[in-house]
């Protein structure tokens, strides 16, 4: 039993750090909804896809490793034979892969009610993506930034046609509070000098919150019925720590006592994606299934706008309106 299960301090939502994804979605019927979940092959991404499918949502999983796709799909179907699951190849570190995924999804004719930007990497050594962008920033932020914008028209039209609110959920982290001192290193994203793997991870997670806030502001100004929120899943024992042998060893030995399990870790994402209580809430940061306070940098509107412009430039497009 972990500490999270002992201390069940429920917030305004009625849920706590110990709540599981199944508990926070109990009684919710997602029939008729379609969701994309990135990075759903393991960890909280897999649990998110599993629980959404269990609630009758048609889930499209964006997976980088297609060799594991069949097993992932079969595992979910084993628990719920009626689950509607599709798998499509998606590498968030590659701009061309994101464009291909978005084009293929749009061509499928499927509606899109929920987009869960979950995939991520953590504490990697300094490397550049195939597009020559620092890997953590490219994978955790830029790929999701592009994906959300490429699928936005589909989400808008789905919301208008079905009269059901669309929801975008960006999985961030409490580590967004521990980025580089300047927040986003706008002029040094690819600078190896001064690179710190944990600060760089924090930078990418800060970018997730800033992106959520800026996109929420733009959609609200348009009067579009699509919300955007960011979430902190909590400290969880998953393979995201694989790039640090020391942290992985500590987690393997003691993690079950002081970290959330995967079912608890996916709770906030599933709550924000599905629960009626979150309806019309946008531009907020959630932790333990409740609205929480992000860092002061995450609330910096000018930094959010500047990040939007930088991201538009990096994906080699004219600025997204």
TrEMBL record:
InterPro entries linked to this entry: NAD(P)-bd_dom_sf, SDR_fam, TIC32
Protein name according to UniProt: Short-chain dehydrogenase TIC 32, chloroplastic
CDD domains: retinol-DH_like_SDR_c_like
Pfam families on file: adh_short
Family from the record: Belongs to the short-chain dehydrogenases/reductases (SDR) family.
Top-level lineage group: Eukaryota
